[in-house]
Design brief:
This protein is mainly beta and 117 residues long. The chain is built from no helices and eleven strands. 0% of the residues lie in helices and 49% in strands.
Length: 117
């Protein structure tokens, strides 16, 4: 079983919306923090959104008010709802399971988001 799997990427026009999913079996039981990052080609990964085991969330300034991170604990899934997308947000989006009480750090393979103008 792969620890972290992303889905939901695709192509959308500027101003549109997408919802990404990250299935991470056991992240609730292992008390993990779950993060969404994004990475443009040839550049560093950027933290987009974070949700902590206690439910507190935080966001990059560039997405505050447009993106929302949430969880479905029964499904061991973390979502990233992205609204008002911009062409410059065409990047690979990756999910990270981190700071777990009882599991190792693990990156997903990523899901591509393409925003056309």
């Amino acid at each position: 079983q792969v620890p972290v799997v992303e889905s939901g990427g695709g192509s959308v026009q500027a101003g549109g919306s997408l919802r990404l999913s990250c299935t991470a079996p056991g992240f609730v039981a292992n008390v993990c923090e779950m993060d969404w990052y994004r990475q443009p080609p040839g550049k560093e990964r950027e933290l987009v959104a974070r949700i902590r085991p206690d439910g507190r969330t935080s966001y990059a300034d560039s997405v505050e008010g447009r993106f929302t991170i949430s969880t479905d604990k029964h499904a061991d899934t973390v979502y990233l709802q992205m609204n008002s997308l911009k062409p410059e947000e065409t990047e690979m989006y990756l999910c990270l399971r981190d700071r777990c009480a009882a599991a190792v750090r693990y990156w997903g393979q990523g899901t591509q988001v393409t925003v056309s103008s």
